[in-house]
């Protein structure tokens, strides 16, 4: 098939269950790794901008390597045993904000003898002892957050909440998830607006204007050798990796020509220069207690609980965003619970290894999959192996710090805009002209931007007398996603409104396109193939064991397994919030997906 440009209907070039050729899989994995590396560098730059030079026990390359190792293990667990969606695990802003609250506040005794959090300022904050203690407390908070994520997954709370999130909960929550990153995006883009703008313009050009252009694909087999069999929309599938590489190359050329940049400040260069590459070993397998054990203080306990709650809310939003963006079957309850459990294990691993960031489903990587329509689970698993490999080599991990700051900002601009747009698209399912819905959307989004802004400027207003409680309240109230999710969920389920007004009579209530009675042969069991447990694990968990706690929330029940394969919900599954899938399936979506999947199967 020859290359060219055509107006073909938008669909995934490689669906979740398909395995691309190894060459494409490695390129897709490199694209995910580049976005993940940007998140890791952004996290460490904002949390630890200027470590003391005298601190020789910790260095940037080791911290990055440990975080990469934990993220790689968590990604492998997520795609194989967790939700089984192609979700890359990375530190999120829901971990960063509480960690910054903890690291910037030290215990201070007030006049009445009670301890209140006080802003850390002066030379003492940069002292080696204070620096190490702060990192140990953040690691302890990450351990606590992992336990909270595990509890929410094992208890089934996460899956219960996910099934009761309608359009009026998802629309403002996903929109705020995207909008909450605008400060960080502007902060890093200001390093060089020209480089950041170049990346954004190329991403728009490749993904939108040239997205339908198809290029020949060269494959190699032992029987045929090298052959050109089909064509792929390469510019769209690599609409993040190609602009990133182009911007990186342009930045390197202009830097070699000694073009002056408006840098963020000397502190931003501490990341690659904290310890020279000669001090970073080529191979160093991280293990618990290698440096120091995490500090499980009362301060770390309060912040860790906040980390676990807010990151779980972000992950639930990512679980609901990913199937819709990739046109996959709706996420069942047990898959959501397993996903939170795997994220909890990843955060526990990161904390005991001395890392300062937990693991959560990466919104930018999910938005990258939506933008490129390349969502193969196999590619994400390859990226997980690459993360583990880089995590065992601090010197190779240090190469990630050479990515220009403006490129990080451009990646945030390109990816988080997809989250904003997806959130806005949910409004079409509800009656947005309703006064009830207008108030819920406006109130939740405005409060989610107002309260964190006010508390960031005046954190002293939160002073209950218990430092643990103060830091917990300050951490959750400065996370916009928590406020939006909590307020929208509360108002949506307490303010009276009809099902049509709330958008619960559409296919969005439980989005299962293409799974029904008339689905083609082989397509009806797609949901069980996507979210079901691996065959080896199913053999180890007979139905009798799945009924016991905690497996009852992690394994599909007998009725639910039958429903996944037949495309209908089990009896009694409908709630007051969401309707059964059989009552809301839309014929047009079903026929479109049926036709596209069968065409693709025939082509392959």
What does this structure look like?
Belongs to the nucleobase:cation symporter-2 (NCS2) (TC 2.A.40) family. It is found in: Membrane. With 604 residues, this protein is mostly helical. It folds into two domains: 439 residues, no CATH class; 78 residues, no CATH class. The strands form three sheets. A three-stranded antiparallel beta sheet has the order 1-5-6. Strands 2-7 form a two-stranded antiparallel ribbon. The longest helix is centred in the middle third of the chain and has 28 residues. It is globular and about 70 Å long.
Overall average pLDDT: 78
Radius of gyration: 24 Å
Shape: globular
Low-pLDDT runs of 5+ residues are 6-10, 52-57, 108-116, 261-278, 510-524, 558-593
Number of discrete helical segments? 27
Share of β-strand residues: 5-15%
Assembly type of the shown chains? single chain
Tally of separate domains? 2
Total strands: the figure is: 7
Measured distance between first and last alpha carbons: 13 Å
Q: Kindly name the structural category.
A: mainly alpha
Helix content: 55-70%
Largest sheet: 3 strands, antiparallel
Strand arrangement, major sheet: 1-5-6
């Amino acid at each position: 098939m020859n290359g060219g440009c055509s107006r073909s209907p938008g669909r995934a070039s490689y669906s979740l269950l398909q395995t691309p050729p190894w060459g494409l899989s490695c390129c897709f994995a490199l694209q995910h790794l580049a976005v993940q590396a940007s998140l890791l560098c952004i996290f460490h730059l904002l949390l630890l901008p200027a470590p003391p030079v005298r601190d020789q026990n910790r260095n940037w390359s080791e911290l990055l390597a440990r975080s990469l190792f934990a993220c790689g293990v968590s990604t492998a667990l997520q795609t194989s045993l967790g939700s089984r969606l192609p979700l890359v695990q990375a530190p999120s802003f829901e971990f960063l904000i509480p960690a910054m609250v903890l690291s910037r506040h030290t215990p201070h005794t007030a006049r009445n003898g009670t301890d209140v959090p006080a802003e850390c300022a002066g030379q003492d904050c940069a002292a080696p002892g204070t620096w190490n203690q702060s990192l140990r407390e953040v690691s302890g908070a990450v351990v606590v957050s992992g336990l909270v994520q595990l509890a929410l997954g094992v208890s089934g709370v996460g899956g219960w909440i996910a099934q009761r999130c309608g359009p009026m909960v998802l629309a403002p929550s996903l929109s705020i998830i995207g909008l909450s990153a605008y400060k960080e995006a502007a902060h890093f883009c200001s390093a060089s607006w020209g480089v950041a703008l170049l990346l954004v313009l190329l991403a728009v050009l490749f993904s939108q204007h040239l997205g339908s252009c198809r290029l020949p694909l060269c494959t190699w087999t032992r029987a045929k050798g090298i052959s050109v069999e089909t064509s792929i929309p390469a510019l769209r599938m690599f609409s993040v990796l190609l602009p990133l590489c182009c911007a990186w190359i342009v930045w390197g050329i202009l830097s070699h020509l000694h073009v002056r940049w408006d840098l963020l400040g000397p502190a931003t260069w501490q990341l690659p220069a904290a310890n020279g590459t000669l001090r970073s070993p080529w191979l160093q397998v991280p293990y618990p207690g290698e440096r120091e054990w995490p500090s499980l203080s009362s301060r770390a306990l309060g912040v860790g609980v906040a980390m676990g709650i807010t990151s779980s809310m972000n992950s639930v939003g990512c679980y609901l965003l990913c199937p819709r963006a990739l046109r996959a079957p709706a996420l069942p309850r047990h898959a959501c619970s397993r996903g939170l459990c795997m994220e909890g294990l990843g955060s526990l691993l990161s904390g005991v290894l001395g890392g300062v960031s937990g693991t959560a489903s990466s919104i930018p990587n999910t938005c990258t999959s939506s933008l490129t329509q390349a969502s193969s689970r196999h590619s994400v698993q390859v990226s997980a192996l690459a993360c583990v490999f880089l995590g065992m080599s601090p010197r190779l991990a240090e190469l990630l710090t050479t990515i220009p700051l403006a490129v990080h900002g451009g990646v945030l601009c390109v990816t988080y805009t997809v989250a904003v747009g997806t959130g806005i698209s949910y409004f079409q399912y509800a009656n947005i002209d309703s006064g009830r819905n207008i108030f819920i959307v406006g109130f939740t989004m405005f409060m989610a931007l107002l309260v964190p802004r006010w508390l960031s400027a005046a954190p002293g207003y939160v002073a209950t007398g218990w430092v643990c409680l103060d830091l917990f309240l300050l951490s959750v109230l400065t996370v916009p996603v928590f406020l939006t999710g909590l307020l929208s969920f509360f108002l949506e389920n307490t303010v009276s409104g009809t099902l049509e007004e709330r958008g619960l009579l559409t296919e969005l209530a439980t989005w299962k396109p293409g799974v029904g009675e008339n689905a083609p042969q082989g397509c009806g069991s797609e949901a069980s193939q996507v979210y079901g447990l691996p065959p080896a694990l199913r053999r180890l968990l007979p139905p009798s064991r799945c009924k016991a706690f905690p497996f009852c929330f992690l394994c599909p029940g007998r009725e639910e397994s039958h429903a996944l394969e037949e495309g209908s919900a089990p009896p009694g599954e409908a709630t007051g919030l969401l309707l059964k899938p059989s009552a809301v399936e839309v014929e047009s979506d079903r026929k479109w997906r049926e036709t596209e999947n069968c065409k693709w199967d025939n082509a392959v």
